[in-house]
Amino acid sequence: GKYRVVSTKAMPGTRWINLLIEQDCRVEICTQKKTILSVEDIIALMGDKCDGVIGQLTEDWGETLFSALSRAGGKAFSNMAVGYNNVDVNAATKYGVAVGNTPGVLTETTAELAASLSLAAARRIVEADEFMRAGLYDGWLPQLFVGNLLKGQTVGVIGAGRIGSAYARMMVEGFKMNLIYYDLYQSTRLEKFVTGMSGSSVKIYQLLTLILMLICFLFAAYGQFLKANGEQPVTWKRASSMNEVLQEADVISLHPILDKTTYHLVNKESLSMMKKEAILINCSRGAVVDEVALVEHLKANPMFRVGLDVFEDEPYMKPGLADMKNAIVVPHIASASKWTREGMATLAALNVLGKIKGYPIWSDPNRVAPFLDENSAPPA
Ligand code: GLV
Ligand code: GLV
Q1: Per-residue model confidence as pLDDT tens digits over 101-118
Q2: Where are the domains of the chain?
Q3: Does residue 178 line the site of ligand 1, with CB under 6 A?
Q4: How many A from CA of 81 to the centre of ligand 1?
Q5: pLDDT tens column, 286-342
Q6: Which superkingdom is the protein from (predicted)?
Q7: Residue 372: what pLDDT?
Q8: For residue 139, which ligand has an atom nearest its CA?
Q9: Number of the ligand 1 atom closest to the C-alpha atom of 101
Q10: Looking at domain 107-199+234-329, which of 3.10.20.310, 3.40.50.720, 3.40.190.10, 3.30.360.10 is its CATH number?
Q11: Buried (b) or exposed (e) across 142-161, using 16+ Cβ within 10 A?
Q12: For ligand 1, what atom is nearest to the CA of residue 283?
């Protein structure tokens, strides 16, 4: 191959490798056994000639690595992740390296994990599993592992981008929860999901009351229809502040990016605003939550439950968290479905290849285009 592309980790599937090989690239995958590579390991891996790198969210892509990549003649870096808080994009720009990430292919998979954690927390699945395995089950009891019914409760979504919107859709459509969301921007993506199945019936009702005879008839018919279906329509709204979500929601799921503005977005004060029996889910980045404050809150409020996929100092947990029965913890696996991980690897390879081969670059001149449609659906 004419170009040398380095991947700091073995990635699933063969498609990503084949794409690169077919296009004149030699692919080198790091063979080190350690889970997390240091900056020095990566510099050694890049060597004196490296056209592009596929890296991981556990690596610190800052000034040191981008200057080394640029010295090796490299012009492209792609994170195999949608999040890029581990990448200093300004440093990359300074050294003429384009940066890519892998949005779209992990949206549904990640939202499904957030939904799984929501259900597991609501129904205390992990505690109950541990109880069973410990041989403690000695007969059905009316009060054994009583949890929360989600139907009719309110789900709060903080950060309504691709993942937050997909999660909202699942909880509203699947479990008939009411929705409140907070985002800096109005999310047409999310609102499109929910308008079809939501509180618009209330507006129809208000409109109809203005038209007399016909109304009475339609209203009665509509009432019959609802009764026949046994359903209350769900309601949804965009909150004017995050605090509104914290105060009103029964289940709150965090889906912002991590940057200076969202660091410790959920802290002692925000936790104190939540309902005593609320459920908090985090599949974004650990540092969005003040984990020390969270442990204190879990200790003081045994009915408050949390489902965490991410942690402030991965791979570590803050002291005390592992002992909390009201916490469910999983090791950053939200995007871990086979289809998604192969898709992420493919997108990362296409990002690097695109820059090397000089394919047209998407909107931001320094960001490599994801070549797949970001709304691309999983295969049937
Ligand atoms: C995973 O955390 C990702 O950002 O893709
Ligand atoms: C519980 O198992 C029930 O039958 O109510």
Answers
A1: 998 899 999 999 999 999
A2: 3-105+337-356, 107-199+234-329
A3: no
A4: 4
A5: 999 999 999 999 999 999 999 999 999 999 999 999 999 999 999 999 999 999 999
A6: Eukaryota
A7: 38
A8: 2
A9: 5
A10: 3.40.50.720
A11: eeeeebbebeebbbbbbbbb
A12: 2
Query: ipTM for the complex?
Result: 0.75
**Could you tell me if 253 and 156 are in contact, meaning their C-beta atoms sit under 8 angstroms apart?**
yes
**CA-proximal residue: ligand 1, atom 4 (nearest):** 83
Q: What is the pLDDT of residues 25-41, one digit of tens each?
A: 999 999 999 999 999 99
Atom of ligand 1 nearest to the CA of 80: 5
**Range 268-274 contact pairs with CB under 8 angstroms and sequence separation of 24 or more:** 268/293, 268/296, 268/297, 270/242, 270/243, 270/246, 271/297, 272/297, 273/243, 273/246, 273/247, 274/246, 274/247, 274/249, 274/304
Higher per-residue pLDDT: 17 or 208: 17
* Residue 195 pLDDT: 80
Q: The domain 3-105+337-356 is classified under which CATH number: 1.20.58.410, 3.40.50.720, 3.40.50.150, 3.80.10.10? A: 3.40.50.720
Ligand 1 center to 44 CA (angstroms) = 25
Tokens 């380095």 sit on residue: 6
Asked whether 57 lines ligand 1 (CB < 6 A), one says yes
- For ligand 1, is residue 310 a contact (CB within 6 Å)? no
